[in-house]
Amino acid sequence: MTKQEILLTKSGGGHIRRNYRKRRRTYAGRQTAAAALLAVLSAVFVWFYPVFQNCSNHMIFTVPETVSEPTDEVQMPILKQQPIQAECMITGAELLGGHYMYYAGPSESMVKEPGEILIALDPGHGGMDDGCVRGGVLEKELNLSISEKVKERLERMGYQVILTRDSDRAVSLKERIKTAKEAHADIYVSIHQNSSELSGVNGMELYYSVEHAADDSRRLSELIQKYSLLNTGANERSIFEWEDIYVVREAKMPSCLIETGFLTNAKERGRLKTSEYQEKLAEGIAAGVDLYFRP
Ligand SMILES: [Zn+2]
Description:
Elements: H1 3-57, H2 85-90, H3 92-96, E1 118-123, E2 133-134, E3 137-138, H4 139-156, E4 160-163, H5 173-182, E5 187-194, E6 204-208, H6 214-232, E7 236-241, H7 246-250, E8 255-262, H8 266-272, H9 275-293
Parallel strand pairs: 1-4, 1-5, 5-8, 6-7
Antiparallel strand pairs: 2-3, 6-8
Helix pairs in contact: 4-9, 6-9
The protein binds zinc ion (ZN).
């Protein structure tokens, strides 16, 4: 071995070996890092699996049997069929804890307690505007009387309630909506009486708009109808999608209008003007509203 070769072996050869060891160390380091990353990712996936699963499947939760109280006597309310993706992300922690307590409900108000919920009740007509008048019964008076009874019941349940008019005075439709919006009401329920050219027509009708909060408004209408019918035994008529009713269209919040009965039907008019029947109606409307917020 020449001096030059020795030098080459010591320096050049050593350099190559060092580089080789360095490459081995780098390679081994990468392997360890990759394994660690894989382990972390696996742990994250296992931990968040219920969240991923529920979000990606758009799972629709149903009401656990133990949650809804009034189901002994009546059918379950018609549930809102909606993807729960957004809520799933918010409530992921709850899901991880194994509490699958989420069921279809009002999308924005479901996290609120009754004390935080504001309900706008709108007694139709008032002042110069009597509404429908038959047999000495004025629609505006029935609307206010029933609304006050609904208010009383809801307040007893812990809800906050505002009336768009609390006396016999004229209030424009625009003003009614303004009142509800400025108060940041969560829902809007307008109360009216119906009329028909046919004196035999009787029963309850509800209207809502698909312009805004269509699903919530539909669900609100269904629940109010269901419990009002159960409480009164009134004839079931339809729930209509109707864009021509200013208050439900312009409310923007979940809303509906209930025509509790026909003043043109003598028998129904006779019932509607009694305080007992109004109490039954009020109880039904309040129960529907309560179930809307607490399914
Ligand atoms: Zn009316």
